């Protein structure tokens, strides 16, 4: 489980990281909040993969879920509401060496951050994006979000939400150059962990929608799925999210789905009769904008100055 660090040459001794090495401030999320489960999964993944803390960064926007970077003992950036993805894109543009995780919420990503969501998917820069979907604005105490269900009570719609919710899976699959889309749930730690791990190893932007419990403002939202897991369809495939044993037994409905089939992925995403979990779509060969932004990254200072001089010389009069 623990491995030798590869690229730390100054250490007199090999370093081995344990969970505590990734644990930052004590989480202040409510008891039972699904964000806690995802934090544990990411910390375990970091430990299992022996990610160098100084080479790992977690970027977020604003919301309860966006407090994530504070609770990791890595680098982090707690950004502005809706701006997690542009900040993360900036990090990735010139740092291909970093492990990059993004925490965002349904409000953060699917409302104020929608434009950034669309373009980040198209840019396909390597990062693991966790979109915590609790169907509500949690931090600001219960306003309707784009994923709030029709008729749901909230402080902005005390008579019930008047519009049908956006479908983040369908939206993501509609964006040009999408390369990885998965859905998981906070209450199955095995599936949650396996999904984040697969995303971390994906060759591009991996977008995960995490169905996340908010017992404080949306108590019981996912009770029907928890009490009757036949409402969930577990997507299985040799190229999908590997899950066995108790993690898989929790879901009696299983359907084999080839994640390279985007038409079928779109059909599954739009099927309102069941909640899919697993890998809906993956394309390892999608274009990567970070390969373009990283050009010249190995140039020496002298070479950069020389290239700059040459460029400026073009404008000599
Ligand atoms: C520009 C801007 N607009 C609005 C806000 C207020 N605000 C803070 S968090 C939030 C909603 C967060 O909801 P979500 O992203 O779903 O996260 P959750 O708290 O549910 O995890 C809003 C509207 C803000 N901080 N900045
Ligand atoms: S309000 Fe909801 S989302 Fe926020 S910490 Fe509490 S349970 Fe979690
Ligand atoms: Mg939310």
Can you walk me through this structure?
- By secondary structure, this protein is α/β, with parallel strands linked by helices.
- Helix content is 31%, strand content 16%.
- It is built from 11 helices and 9 strands.
- The protein has helices at residues 35-48, 84-94, 106-112, 114-123, 168-173, 189-200, 223-227, 245-249, 262-270, 289-293, 301-313; strands at 56-60, 75-78, 99-105, 127-133, 180-185, 205-211, 232-236, 254-256, 275-282.
- It has a 9-stranded mixed β-sheet with strand order 2-1-3-4-6-5-9-7-8, sandwiched between helices.
- α3 (106-112) crosses α4 (114-123).
- The longest helix has 14 residues, at 35-48.
- The N and C termini lie far apart (63 Å).
- The structure holds thiamine diphosphate, iron/sulfur cluster (SF4) and magnesium ion (MG).
Can you tag this structure with a few keywords?
317 residues; alpha/beta; nine-stranded mixed beta sheet; globular; disordered N terminus; binds thiamine diphosphate; binds iron/sulfur cluster; binds magnesium ion
